[in-house]
C-alpha cells in the first residue's frame, strides 16, 4: 500500500505540490469563512465557540461597518472607471505607436508598482498638504487612481502584445474602416484584458490601507474600519463581508470562464 502511494506521488508530484500550495493559500480564507458562522465567547476572542447564522442575517450589526463598506465600494468603483479608461488609452499608445520618450514612459509606468506604499502614501500626503487640498474622500480617490493606473496599463499591454495584428489587417482588407475594425475586431479581443484590469484595480482599491490611511482625513474605508476595530475587538460581521467579497470574486471568475467556453462552442 505504501509503495503504491509513493509511486502515485512520484508520478503526480507536480499536482501534489500545486495542491499543497493552493491549500496553504486558501487556508486563511477558509478560516475567515468558518468564523463568519461563529458566535465568539467574547469581543476579543477569535476561537470557534458556537455555530450561528445571526452574523449573515445581520451583516450590518455595527452601524459604521456597512457605511465603511459602501464608502470603499464607491471609491473603488470610481477609481476603477477612471484608472481603466486612462490605463487602456496609455496601453494602446505604448503598444501601437512609436514616439520619442516611449521607453521613459514605460519606466515611469512601473515606478508606482515598484515603489513601497509607505513612500507613495507619504509623498501624496506631502503633495496635498503643500497644495492646501483638504484630506478626505477626493484625496483618497485621487491616490487610488494614481496607483491603479499602472496595473491597468501593464495588464492591457500584455493583452495587446499577444494579439495577432493580422486579424485587423484582414478586416481592413475586407473594406472595414478604422472604427468598424476597432469595434468588431480589436475591442472584442482586448476586452478580456480590460475586464481583468478593471477587476484588479477594484480589488487593489477596495483592499488598500496604507496609502488610504495617510490621505483619508476623516474618511473611514472598510480596511481602516477593520484596523480601528482590531484595537477593541473585531465584530464577526467583518468575516461575513470578507467571505461575501471572496464569493463574489469567485462567481465573477467562474462566470467569465463559463461564458468564454460557451462562446467557443458556438
Could you walk me through the main structural features you see in this protein, from its secondary elements to its overall organization?
It is globular and about 70 Å long. It is mostly helical and 266 residues long. The chain folds into two domains: 1-61 and 237-266, no CATH class; 64-234, MetI-like fold. Helix 4 packs across helix 7 (137-161) and helix 8 (166-173) runs antiparallel to helix 9 (178-207). The longest helix is centred in the N-terminal third of the chain and has 34 residues, at 63-96. Helices cover 77% and strands 0% of the residues.
Set down the secondary structure blueprint.
Blueprint: H1 2-11, H2 13-35, H3 54-57, H4 63-96, H5 102-114, H6 117-130, H7 137-161, H8 166-173, H9 178-207, H10 210-215, H11 222-229, H12 237-265
Helix pairs in contact: 2-12, 4-7, 4-9, 4-11, 5-7, 7-9, 8-9
Offer a few descriptive terms:
single chain; mainly alpha; 266 residues; MetI-like fold; 77% helix
Structure in a nutshell:
This protein is 77% helix and 0% strand. With 266 residues, the chain is an all-alpha fold.
* CATH topology group of the largest domain: MetI-like fold
Note the gap between the termini.
47 Å
Number of strands: 0
For the record, what CATH class of the largest domain applies? Mainly Alpha
Structural class by sheet pairing and helices: mainly alpha
Number of domains: 2
CATH architectural group of the largest domain: Orthogonal Bundle
Oligomeric nature of the chains: single chain
Helix count, DSSP H or I runs of 4 or more residues: 12
Q: Assign the CATH superfamily of the largest domain.
A: MetI-like
Based on CA inertia axes, which overall geometry fits?
globular
- Tell me the radius of gyration: 23 Å
Regions with little confidence, pLDDT below 50 for 5+ residues: none
Tell me about the biggest sheet?
none
Q: Percent of residues in helical segments?
A: over 70%
Question: Mean pLDDT, rounded to whole units?
Answer: 85
Amino acid at each position: 500500500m505504501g509503495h503504491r502511494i509513493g509511486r502515485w506521488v512520484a508520478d503526480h508530484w507536480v499536482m501534489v505540490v500545486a495542491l499543497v500550495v493552493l491549500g496553504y493559500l486558501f487556508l486563511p480564507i477558509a478560516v475567515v469563512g468558518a468564523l463568519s458562522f461563529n458566535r465568539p465567547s467574547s469581543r476579543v476572542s477569535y476561537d470557534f465557540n458556537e455555530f450561528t447564522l445571526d452574523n449573515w442575517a445581520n451583516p450590518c450589526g455595527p452601524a459604521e461597518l456597512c457605511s465603511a463598506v459602501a464608502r470603499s465600494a464607491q471609491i473603488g468603483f470610481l477609481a476603477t472607471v477612471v484608472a481603466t479608461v486612462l490605463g487602456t488609452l496609455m496601453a494602446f499608445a505604448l503598444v501601437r505607436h512609436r514616439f520619442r520618450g516611449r521607453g521613459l514612459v514605460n519606466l515611469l509606468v512601473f515606478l508606482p508598482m515598484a515603489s513601497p506604499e509607505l513612500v507613495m502614501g507619504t509623498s501624496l500626503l506631502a503633495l496635498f498638504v503643500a497644495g492646501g487640498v483638504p484630506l478626505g474622500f477626493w484625496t483618497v480617490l485621487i491616490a487610488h487612481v494614481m496607483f491603479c493606473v499602472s496595473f491597468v496599463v501593464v495588464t492591457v499591454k500584455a493583452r495587446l502584445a499577444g494579439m495577432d495584428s493580422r486579424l485587423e489587417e484582414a478586416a481592413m482588407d475586407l473594406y472595414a474602416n478604422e472604427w468598424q475594425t476597432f469595434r468588431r475586431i480589436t475591442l472584442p479581443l482586448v476586452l478580456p484584458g480590460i475586464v481583468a484590469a478593471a477587476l484588479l484595480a477594484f480589488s487593489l482599491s477596495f483592499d488598500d490601507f496604507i496609502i488610504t490611511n495617510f490621505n483619508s482625513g476623516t474618511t473611514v474605508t472598510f480596511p481602516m474600519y477593520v484596523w480601528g476595530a482590531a484595537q477593541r475587538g473585531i465584530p464577526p460581521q467583518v468575516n461575513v463581508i470578507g467571505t461575501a467579497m471572496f464569493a463574489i470574486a469567485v462567481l465573477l471568475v467562474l462566470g467569465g470562464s463559463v461564458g468564454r467556453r460557451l462562446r467557443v462552442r458556438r
